[in-house]
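Example record

Each entry pairs one chain with its bound ligand, 2-oxoglutaric acid.
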Amino acid sequence: MSFKDHGFAMFENIVDKRFCDDLNARMNGLGQESAGSRRMLDHDWCRQLGLDVHATLANQLNELSDLRVVQCTYFHKSPTSNWLVTWHQDRSVPVASRVDSPELTGWSTKEGMTFVHGPDELLAQMVAVRLHLDDSLDANGPLRVILGSHQAGTLSNEQIEALRQYNRDVPCLVPKGGVLAMRPLILHASSKSTSQNPRRVLHFLFGPENPRFGLAWASIS
Ligand SMILES: O=C(O)CCC(=O)C(=O)O
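Structure tokens for the complex follow.
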């Protein structure tokens, strides 16, 4: 089965483990050792990292080749900054400004950025690339996904419940320096960490050059 059918895929050794250590030190230097930040593309080094990861991964993942990086979120799960997320799809995309259209709902502002629920047609083209800066282990709250759950577009609460009941979920145990690539519409969740080991991730979101629907991406490279 492929990324197209599963809605996710894991890749090892996309960046060097020592480079992950440098990134972790850099993030501590930025004071971003707490839960995280959605504004990582404000940093030139992070924007460049998004380009580098794209260049490496596009050889192995066709679906990424025509896309560009539109956002990066840093997640730092640890014993002192711990959380769980219940089953959901990622529908919010970062845009330059609000556009009045009946097709566009779910507007929000977070960390000074404007988000809207992307129409399914847009979300179906997008790919999230989670670069793992630590080993993701059973005990440190890895992301879990439900195979193929991205295929039906936006799901109702009842559909989410049914998919959860009748499908096995898969823990995404990605080694440090590896990547989990996923469709934003795949159902995913994560548990609290029960380990001393941190689970740090840079979550890059890639979208088509033109998001259409009168929208423009929040960040222009
Ligand atoms: O990394 C996590 O634990 C949560 C990530 C997540 O749920 C998301 O990106 O929507």
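The first strand starts at residue 8 and ends at 11.
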